[in-house]
Design goal:
Elements (H helix, E strand, L loop, with lengths): L1 H12 L8 E5 L2 E9 L2 H26 L4 H27 L5 E8 L2 E5 L5 H10 L2
Antiparallel strand pairs: 1-4, 2-3
Helix pairs in contact: 2-3
Length: about 130
């Protein structure tokens, strides 16, 4: 991936119009990175964190339209969001049972990447990439 990104960067630095350029991944596979064991405490903590962020967003939006007591409104929304987030995090973890007692991050990986440019500009791109920096 880094080689393909470097190639597009070189094209861009050389003045090549990269607007129609694509980086294409081949032989995609799903990779799940296990981050650790999940427990009821962690489920509540992660849920509270997500809920607090959502509460902060709602609180800031409310503070824009109701400027009186803005700090109290924002803090109240953060606490409210954290409490409900913890509750929903616990419910979601309990609903899974013991089938999935770990938390992970999913991502897509490709075995190789190619850089594709429009056919009518392929010669110019190849000349730039052949010369290098």
């Amino acid at each position: 991936m880094l080689d393909a990104q470097a190639a597009v960067d070189l094209l861009s630095d050389s003045g090549f119009e990269v607007g129609a350029t694509r980086i294409v991944g081949h032989d995609l596979k799903s990779v799940e990175i296990v981050r650790g064991r999940m427990s009821y405490g962690k489920a509540a903590l992660f849920g509270a964190g997500s809920g607090a962020w959502f509460g902060l967003l709602i609180g800031l939006l409310m503070a824009i339209f109701v400027p009186i007591g803005s700090l109290g409104t924002v803090l109240g929304a953060v606490v409210f969001g954290a409490v409900w987030g913890a509750i929903f995090g616990l419910i979601a973890f309990a609903a899974q049972g013991q089938d999935r007692n770990f938390h992970s991050q999913s991502t897509m990986k490709a075995s190789s990447y190619t850089v594709e440019v429009p056919f009518d500009r392929a010669r110019a791109a190849l000349d730039i990439l052949t010369k290098g920096r």
